[in-house]
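Priority: medium. Attachment 1 of 2:
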């Protein structure tokens, strides 16, 4: 299996791709996603876990709002993971994750995820390489458990933003009144650790790859949203779901 090198992957859409036409296609996909999610909920044989990772400013919240927010909120739940609480730290690192694994019929979205425990922790040297390797093995076992024992289908997206675009978006948070609430001075500190983050992400992609990560160019929101909507649509269509008959 080839190794992922983020520096070799563009963060932008292909130059010949038409923005207006792509947005039209995305809108049609979103309409179908609403119907497919309803079918997933009704049949209740499968579940879907959508993992969204990315650097600050890569647009995780926007994807959740514009792609996954178009579906029935009864069948889609979102869990955001921030710094662990004292209670969470008193358990194993997957304890706070497993309790939010999706039930059959549900789409569960992780805004950041269990991967934070082998990303930010390694960047700041709170976790050594030996511990990180053990955690990656535990993550692989955890994802295998979900897939094999609960018919959970996992989509793992990395929102691949360029450092230049990230800086522009972080600076915008200091100027745009509608985005000032997102401002966090620590985001700029983390951005200065870019190269180390890229190394840790690449190690994560290459060692936790079943299912494989989907690298999503994220400098242009319209393209990013099209890719994620298309991937989720293709997954749900592949399940060949049927509405259950009348209950006897």
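Attachment 2 of 2:
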């Amino acid at each position: 299996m080839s190794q992922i090198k983020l520096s070799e992957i563009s963060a932008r859409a292909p130059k010949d791709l038409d923005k207006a036409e792509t947005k039209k296609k995305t809108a049609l996909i979103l309409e179908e996603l609403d119907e497919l999610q309803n079918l997933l909920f009704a049949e209740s044989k499968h579940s879907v876990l959508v993992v969204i990772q990315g650097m600050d400013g890569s647009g995780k919240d926007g994807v959740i709002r514009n792609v996954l927010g178009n579906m029935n909120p009864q069948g889609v739940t979102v869990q955001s993971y921030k710094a662990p609480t004292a209670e969470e730290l008193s358990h194993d690192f997957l304890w706070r994750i497993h309790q939010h694994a999706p039930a059959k019929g549900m789409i569960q979205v992780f805004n950041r995820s269990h991967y934070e425990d082998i990303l930010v922790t390694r960047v700041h040297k709170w976790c050594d390489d030996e511990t990180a390797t053990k955690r990656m093995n535990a993550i692989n076992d955890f994802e295998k458990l979900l897939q094999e024992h609960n018919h959970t289908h996992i989509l793992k997206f990395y929102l691949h933003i360029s450092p230049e675009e990230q800086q522009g978006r972080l600076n915008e948070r200091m100027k745009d009144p509608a985005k000032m609430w997102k401002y966090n001075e620590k985001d700029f500190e983390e951005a200065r650790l870019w190269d180390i983050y890229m190394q840790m992400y690449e190690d994560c992609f290459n060692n936790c790859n079943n299912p494989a990560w989907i690298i999503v160019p994220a400098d242009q929101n319209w393209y990013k949203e099209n890719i994620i909507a298309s991937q989720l649509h293709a997954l749900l269509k592949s399940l060949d779901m049927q509405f259950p008959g009348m209950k006897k």
